[in-house]
Every structure is written in structure tokens, then in C-alpha cells.
Specification:
There is one protein chain. By secondary structure, the chain is mainly alpha-helical. 86% of the residues lie in helices and 0% in strands. The longest helix has 45 residues. The radius of gyration is 16 Å and the shape is globular.
């Protein structure tokens, strides 16, 4: 990796972390999903995976060490791999909004699976059921945020990245 790539990963990670913190007052409304989608399209899978590792690690420093952090190291790369797999097939914000919405709706289920490994299947099921209202908010807000911000973010990042950051 070049020094500018390391700096880029740091800036992108800081942007995701700051964006999540700024919206943390609103439960399950976040820009992490849209940023990972756009970063994957613009910067590629390798750099975006590194961003997800740095972001997930920063989350541990901010929120503390618990079982949830393991899920972060799997869930965000899952979104990145999914985005990378469909980025050439989906050309509009609606397709990515659909992916972001489904991802948000499924977020609690992903966590419930990881929690089941530590606390048992019944805990995981109750964890998921208890969180369904939050997952609905998460999915709907992801869908709306991606519809609104996808094109502007993509245009700005592609413009500046193509200008000399490669």
C-alpha cells in the first residue's frame, strides 16, 4: 500500500465513524451503510474492507468490548462483498436502496446469529424479536438515505478520486 492509500483508509474510516456518531441520537438511523456501498463502488473492495476493519475497531474503542464487536467484523464485509458482486449490474440508486433496506431489516438477525453462539439459541431468537421495531427503522431509513444521498456522494467521490487520488 502507498502512503496515500493508508491516509485515504484513515480519512474514510473517520468519516464513517463521525457520521455514525453524529446520527447516534436517532436509533438505527445511520449513514454507515450508504458510505460502505459508495466506497466499495468508488475505491474498490480492498480499500473498503480495510476501512471496515478500522471502523469496527474504532467502534470497540468508543462503545466498549463485548460480543457485538465480532459481528461487526463479519457484517460490514458482507455488505461490501454484496455491493461488489452487484455493482456492475445495478446502475440506479433504487437497486442500492433496496439492498440497503434489506440489509437494515436483516441487521438484527445477523446480530442474533452471533449472539446465539455466546448465549444460546433462545437468547438469539428473543434478541432478534425484541429488535424487530429497530430493524424496521433501520431498513426504512437506509432505503430513504440511499435514495437521497447515493448519486451526490457517488458523483463527489468519483470526481475527486479520479482527479488524482488513484
Amino acid at each position: 500500500m502507498k502512503i496515500r492509500d493508508i491516509a485515504l483508509v484513515g480519512v474514510l474510516s473517520a468519516t464513517i465513524t463521525a457520521g455514525k456518531l453524529a446520527l447516534s441520537i436517532l436509533p438505527n438511523v445511520e449513514i454507515v451503510t450508504i458510505l460502505f456501498i459508495v466506497y466499495t463502488i468508488v475505491f474498490g473492495i480492498r480499500k473498503t474492507l480495510m476501512v471496515s476493519i478500522v471502523f469496527s475497531t474504532m467502534e470497540i474503542f468508543i462503545y466498549g468490548f463485548s460480543t457485538w464487536f465480532i459481528a461487526y467484523y463479519f457484517i460490514w464485509p458482507l455488505l461490501i462483498f454484496l455491493t461488489n458482486a452487484v455493482k456492475d449490474k445495478i446502475k440506479t440508486e433504487y437497486g442500492f436502496a433496496f439492498i440497503g433496506g434489506i440489509f437494515g431489516l436483516s441487521f438484527g438477525l445477523f446480530f442474533a446469529i452471533f449472539e446465539s453462539f455466546f448465549y444460546g439459541m433462545f437468547y438469539g431468537i428473543s434478541y432478534w424479536i425484541k429488535g424487530i421495531p429497530f430493524d424496521i427503522v433501520h431498513g426504512v431509513s437506509n432505503f430513504i438515505i440511499i435514495l437521497i444521498l447515493y448519486k451526490p456522494l457517488l458523483n463527489v467521490l468519483e470526481k475527486y478520486y479520479n482527479r488524482g487520488l488513484r
